[in-house]
UniProtKB/TrEMBL annotation, chains A, B, C:
Lineage: Bacteria, Pseudomonadati, Pseudomonadota, Gammaproteobacteria, Lysobacterales
Domain Aspartate/ornithine carbamoyltransferase carbamoyl-P binding stretches: 14-158
Name the record gives this protein: Aspartate carbamoyltransferase
Subunit structure: Heterododecamer (2C3:3R2) of six catalytic PyrB chains organized as two trimers (C3), and six regulatory PyrI chains organized as three dimers (R2).
Keyword line: Pyrimidine biosynthesis, Transferase
Residue stretches making up the Aspartate/ornithine carbamoyltransferase Asp/Orn-binding domain: 167-311
Family statement: Belongs to the aspartate/ornithine carbamoyltransferase superfamily. ATCase family.
Annotated PANTHER family: ASPARTATE CARBAMOYLTRANSFERASE, ORNITHINE CARBAMOYLTRANSFERASE, MITOCHONDRIAL
Pathway: Pyrimidine metabolism; UMP biosynthesis via de novo pathway; (S)-dihydroorotate from bicarbonate: step 2/3
E.C. number: 2.1.3.2
Enzyme class: transferase
PROSITE patterns (alphabetical): CARBAMOYLTRANSFERASE
UniProt superkingdom: Bacteria
């Protein structure tokens, strides 16, 4: 999405479709807001009243646990009502178009649409068709973007390593099918991470033009050298064609993060993963559950980051 | 439903099953309440506290987007809690009868049941079996009635054309399978619309006895003459037997509302449709999205009308 | 579950997995809390604020109407938010393990997990894996336990017959497959019911060691003699192997509670059933809907008992 389409005429964030071209100042404002909401939550454990009277619609065309629940909780903890739009049993089964569904829900004075869809560009498409003041938030479109994941990953890293310019961050795994990788790269580049490195089997690596500013290292052991953060990606078996990966065991042997490999990184290297994890496929249980793992912390931070996005987009 | 069954012993509305035999005074009270709730909403955009502590149960045995969501929002914006009763995954799959389900939910102190079912008479059947003070609201039963749609259509017309006696309202399309048409006719007759006219292919027209007080005109071009309002109906493909309509193209040629035809009506004729629309089947996109279209306004008004129904029936 | 696992180090209830080994003092505290919440509800019909800011997750791996809705209403009437975790459309379909799902939801600061699963021991398994202060509540695991049902049955009896030591309680039906029977037996024994009697066809009766302190009577007419309370069980057709019961008619002839049989019990004998009932299979409609039936009262009490469990476990 072009910068102007995502921002309004006052250059304030209007929708959240992609982190590509999102100015660093906007990202930092969201991360700072997440931090203040987090502190407020831990101080009181009370719901806020910021979005009282507002309605957030979850439009999930792909199954999801964590992301949908995370947005659901984020909205409720800000005092909003949530409509979980069950696509399978909805009138889209009567052939209504997505845009007509959007306009119908806008006519009911819904304020935000959280959209997940297997097709790239769905959230942007909806954002272009919004007629009211409602905001569209991309909760994942195909392999294109998952901006709240990119933000929560940046937020999680910042809580541990505030000086991004000194960091080496390695993203490893199925980059080709990963909207998480794309959003992480956009976030971390914009926020000034010193070295961004990606590692994947050649057939799970997109063209270099899709990896702006990234070092590409095919051998995982080599790639881990000097890493302050390693973000492991889920093997997106459901999006792969047959035989892109010979076997899970062979994949794990070459690209699985186990305890031996983790020792090749810096001693305090953070281990991250967007979840859900495939244990002993891309990551060893001992590492996923180990002292350096931030995986569950990412999940918790996701709620605060989504609260921040909702609060900022709905203008409160 | 007989008048006495829908009203209580003080002649106040107790359930909302059908607009047939509903006194004009009751209808007007609901429309006026919708208007005042609308104004309150736009002034504050805050949820009201009228139904705090009350529980509204959505019992939808047919898929629905707009109606279920509309009731869901209406209840929440009045401060009620909503139980969306997922029929497919419920104990009705264990063979529990509908009446036992009703009594179970009443025993849990649920206050209103919003019922959609493909069988005519389901809501009335449930209303007859209610044992508590709970209200039953028909959200559509077979081709019989959809009273909140009838009310919201009347409400929408009244906002634009307050003097009903001077109006010619045309309802066009699949009258035979349409609960919307039946409820619109009951509402508009009771509220004193000057001329009520229906237009449909002969095989989609019910017996004249089902169209009390209506002119019947088979040719659509002729029917449009002098119309102040035209209500287009959805071609209920899912309720039709094979070959009731030869083809969508043929149907559109004879009964589709396009720009040329709309010019046969009065210049400021309102275009309405209960949605979801079949574009280029019963209505041209240019008309559905045009300046005379009230289709999305109907959607928005539906929430206020349902708020009014819930508030009145739950006695607050 | 061992006593120490269910209680915390201060011997307060931490999870509710089973009534086996739950001290009488804990049970009585829950029943007393249910009574006070009931009175507060009927005085005000307002939601309470006790669990404001808390999140209750319904993790139902088996379809359920009444239990899920009952917990949903209980949580909402205490001011909590509820996440209904739809298992079929969740990431468990991506192969995520149950424990990883639990930890993910804990990381989002969810406070209670209400779990139903067809496998015995699922709730206990989750309770052993909880890492936060969250509580696990067993809403039914296989044929093992359904502790809130046991409590609400005890509560319902106590409201009518406060002196348990004088009572004869008969549980009749498919004891073998019934988690309700097991929890009822644990509750009523612990609370000091004078005579606990079970009645079932030989092939639907578990080993005597699973029926601690119970008289076993195979003939239903004989078993009813002197009963103050008869708890009829649902014929769990969905959990039975073929031909465990020859036919519903034959079952009803021997183990159905009809008006004639009810007269064999004490004149004011209470009739109970956990629902949903199979009419004319284990109970005659005339009895289920008759003056001695407490079946719907059980449903209503269930909400108050679950409010009590949530309030006590979440420490408010």
């Amino acid at each position: 999405m072009t910068r102007s389409a995502q921002l309004d005429t006052h250059r304030r964030l209007r929708h959240l479709i992609s982190l590509e071209n999102l100015p660093a100042a906007e990202m930092l404002r969201l991360l700072d807001r997440a931090e203040s909401l987090r502190q407020e939550w831990f101080a009181n454990r009370r719901k806020l009243d910021l979005l009282h009277g507002r309605t957030v619609v979850n439009l999930f065309f792909e199954p999801s646990t964590r992301t949908r629940t995370s947005f659901d909780l984020a909205a409720k903890r800000l005092g909003a009502d949530v409509i979980n739009f069950d696509i399978a049993s909805s009138s889209t089964s009567k052939g209504e178009s997505l845009v007509d569904t959007l306009h119908t829900l806008e006519a009911m004075h819904c304020d935000a649409f959280v959209v997940r869809h297997k097709e790239n560009g769905t959230a942007e498409f909806l954002a272009r068709h919004v007629r009211s003041a409602a905001a569209v938030i991309n909760a994942g479109d195909g392999n294109n973007a998952h901006p709240t994941q990119g933000l929560l990953d940046a937020y999680t890293i910042r809580r541990h390593r505030p000086d991004f310019s000194a960091l080496t961050v390695l993203i490893c795994g199925d980059i080709l099918h990963s909207r998480v990788a794309r959003s992480d790269i956009h976030a971390l580049r914009t926020l000034g991470v010193g070295t961004l490195r990606v590692c994947a089997p050649a057939n799970l690596l997109p063209a270099q033009t899709e990896l702006p500013g990234c070092e590409i290292v095919e051998d995982f052991d080599t790639a881990l050298g000097g890493a302050d953060v390693v973000i492991m990606l889920r093997l997106q078996k459901e999006r792969m064609q047959h035989a892109q990966v010979p076997s899970e065991q062979a994949y794990y042997a070459r690209y699985g993060l186990d305890a031996r490999r983790l020792r090749l990184a810096r001693p305090d290297c953070l281990v991250m993963h967007p979840g859900p994890i495939n244990r002993e496929v891309e990551i060893a249980s001992a590492v996923a559950d180990g002292a350096q793992s931030c995986i569950l912390e990412q999940v918790g931070n996701g709620v605060f980051v989504r609260m921040a996005v909702l609060a900022e987009l709905l203008g409160t």
